[in-house]
From TrEMBL:
<feature type="transmembrane region" description="Helical">
    <location>
        <begin position="176"/>
        <end position="202"/>
    </location>
</feature>
<protein>
    <submittedName>
        <fullName>Cation:proton antiporter</fullName>
    </submittedName>
</protein>
<comment type="similarity">
    <text>Belongs to the monovalent cation:proton antiporter 2 (CPA2) transporter (TC 2.A.37) family.</text>
</comment>
<feature type="transmembrane region" description="Helical">
    <location>
        <begin position="145"/>
        <end position="164"/>
    </location>
</feature>
<feature type="transmembrane region" description="Helical">
    <location>
        <begin position="114"/>
        <end position="133"/>
    </location>
</feature>
<dbReference type="InterPro" id="IPR006153">
    <property type="entry name" value="Cation/H_exchanger_TM"/>
</dbReference>
<feature type="transmembrane region" description="Helical">
    <location>
        <begin position="289"/>
        <end position="311"/>
    </location>
</feature>
<keyword id="KW-0813">Transport</keyword>
<dbReference type="GO" id="GO:1902600">
    <property type="term" value="P:proton transmembrane transport"/>
</dbReference>
<dbReference type="GO" id="GO:0006813">
    <property type="term" value="P:potassium ion transport"/>
</dbReference>
<feature type="transmembrane region" description="Helical">
    <location>
        <begin position="84"/>
        <end position="108"/>
    </location>
</feature>
<dbReference type="InterPro" id="IPR003148">
    <property type="entry name" value="RCK_N"/>
</dbReference>
<keyword id="KW-0050">Antiport</keyword>
<feature type="transmembrane region" description="Helical">
    <location>
        <begin position="53"/>
        <end position="72"/>
    </location>
</feature>
<feature type="transmembrane region" description="Helical">
    <location>
        <begin position="6"/>
        <end position="24"/>
    </location>
</feature>
<dbReference type="GO" id="GO:0016020">
    <property type="term" value="C:membrane"/>
</dbReference>
<feature type="transmembrane region" description="Helical">
    <location>
        <begin position="323"/>
        <end position="346"/>
    </location>
</feature>
Amino acid sequence: MDIYAEFTLLLVIACGFGLVGMLLKQPLIVAFIVAGIVVGPSALDLVHHHDPIALLASVGITVLLFVVGLKLDLHLIRHLGPVALATGLGQLLFTIVFGWGLGVALGLGILEATYVAVALTFSSTIIVVKLLADKREIDSLHGRIAMGFLIVQDIAVVIAMMAMGSGGAADADIGVVYIIAEIAIKLVVAVIVVALAMKFLLPRLLQQVGKSQELLLLFAIAWGTLLAASGEYFGFSKEVGAFLAGFSLASTSYREAIGARLTSIRDFLLLFFFIELGSALDMTTLGDAIVPAIVLSLFVLIGNPLIVMAIMGYMGYRKRTGFMAGLTVAQISEFSIIFIAMGISLGHINQSALGLVTLVGLVTIAASTYMILYSRQLYSVFEPYLGVFERVTPHRELADSQEDLATGKQGKVIVFGAGRYGEKYALKLAESGIDVIAVDFDPEVTRSVKHPNITMRYGDAADQEFIDSLPLKTTHAVVCTIPDIETQLMLIDALKQHHFTGKIVIAAHQPGTRRELEQAGVSEIFVPLHDAAEHAAEKMLTELK
């Protein structure tokens, strides 16, 4: 079969599995990984041209991390850097120590247990970012913290893989210290180069390429792949390089335009990453690893989130933020399998370790996908038992709230979702003299919206505790412009539990959700684009008359 026919067949099979997954209400990521397993050597063995697929997957990863970097700026890095570093390193240390102990208890040799323990520490940045992006939670506080410690993990992956090469050195300790120092120096140099580019090169370039949308898109992809390739060449991974490329453009006025145009390209290219991941899983190596894999999978699914919650709670974050961020480390990475394969090639461990880690990967990736997608429902179940992970006063997270307690403003209208449409809605009311409380889970949005009649609150519409803090008894109406139907329904349910007697107004961004909202008892439903078009048409008719 020639490469074009194989490529076409893979697309058709992936589309078929995706359609079945959608009809069964299953995550597309799981469907695509299963498709990769089916077309891989363990089943139909249809993939013979691995290099082109691997190339498309690599570009997809680059675009994904580039888009993530676009959403961050210097202020956010300074604000979230400490918690990301502490959480990332704390989780790594916890997983290695306790994972090694579990491995030894399960009968693994000392060196094999060490390899497996290190492999268990790596979480899949690509899968987590894709899930958070699909849920529109990349901009949330827990999403940004998760991105921070996942980048810390990516750097740790590089250090671990490079340290393997020094394992046979006469003085391994000196070798590892040298490697860490070398990577640290390279990262510092990379950051300095990117900072200089941000100040002197990129502003001039963007002024020119920004005149053409097509050229702007091409430049963004070229810049992202250039820094990704440079990152891999200098030894600290293409993921970190792509992230720095996006970060370098995050403070420019072009980031929204670039991000919007890259989204569809990212989703298409990532399909090949998931197919490649599934097809690379060798199911014949599983052997007798089922029982140890179940034990280690439970350790990853439960232990990793718990340590993240503990660290974030200690640092002053609320239990809900810690829970949501903790779920993002409840799986191992594709790099875990690569790491074990490298150990086998070096003769340090045998083939059975690969089967064990492969099975743990399948279980944790599938389970954590559901855990992240249904994180809010899971939180509502476990919330009564999570008080131990929250300080009496979660000072660090409270600092993100922009509520002005001194003014005592109650707000006649509460608007959930202060992004584009919600911000315009709130500003229109405020300019008419109406006191508005605007709520958003993006800390940057809560800092940017400013009007004397608007009180900004950092919070989540699906957070029951946050709803409790709102002055619902004196509020005339609650307006929700958040596009996620599940969040809308949870907000409506929370308002009913508080016996809210005011008006509930919901923006139905998808016309198909109108019936579901009507059944939930919403007072008023509007479709933003549809209503805006009708308003514009009515204005034109008035002028023509």
